[in-house]
Amino acid sequence: MRTVYVNGSYLPETEAHVSIFDRGFLFADGVYEVTLVLGGKLVDFAAHLHRLHRSLNELRIAPPVSDDDLLDIHRALIRQNQIDEGLIYLQVTRGAADRDFLFPDAATPRTLVLFTQKKAILNNPVAERGQRVITIEDLRWRRCDIKTVQLLYPSLAKMEAKSRGADDAWLVRDGFVTEGTSNNAYIVTRNGTIVTRDLSTDILHGVTRHSVLQCAHDLQLKVEERPFAVGEIGEAAEAFTTSSSGLVNPVVEIDGATIGDGNPGPIAKRLRHIYIQRSRDTAI
Ligand code: PDD
Fold first, then answer.
1. In this structure, which of 164, 167, 186, 197 has its CB flanked by the most CB atoms within 10 Å?
2. Is 126 helix (H, G, I), strand (E, B) or coil?
């Protein structure tokens, strides 16, 4: 059984509880992070902390504990659950208060929960064969840059993809791809340019996106940060997604049409390889 963390205590997962009045439960009034663990170490931890603070700040939720404490908790959970490869989920909510649309007093203790997921991240059969993706309208709210726990629409979109025999969905606003349900989206044009949407309130500022674009820069690959149209995907040489759980994950089919030769492309494969190396080298 897993040991999880809730509000200062390390407990068996069956004994960890949160109030029914928690605003995360009633209003989706909370934010989260998912950090990759490789070789028992945290990948890009500083960037996850940075984004956590940004999300909290946008929602005016005060950090529940210090950054040093957060690092200690992550490491304690890795140790206690013997995680070599997997993910750590962290969630902060505005805490428990009588139901009211107005925020409770700022002194209300925030809820802090963390748990581990043991998972084969490197050996991923979908990454080997390439993902099949559908496009679907992006009906999320307009602050997708804040990593809130309101994930119902992405969940519905993923179910729609599954019901159509695909692995995931790319979300589309005004004819342009914003991002995947839980990843950032990229195409590689026939002249070898990597294209991914520029940072704005329309997408989550992916930690993996930042690192992978740095890898691309180091490899002297051409990168354009701009919205790309759905019509450009069919013309692309390759496509891929990035996320902490999927790393660099090739896409080989969009709405039933083959991308490139239908196999994971060379640039996606190279970036996946380099990104994994870089992550192993820099994990803490
Ligand atoms: N999802 N875009 C969205 C909408 C996401 O939910 C995620 C992450 C990303 C990629 O961000 P990062 O590279 O920092 O993981 C982009 C996480 C993994 C999840 O919800 O499980």
1. 186
2. helix
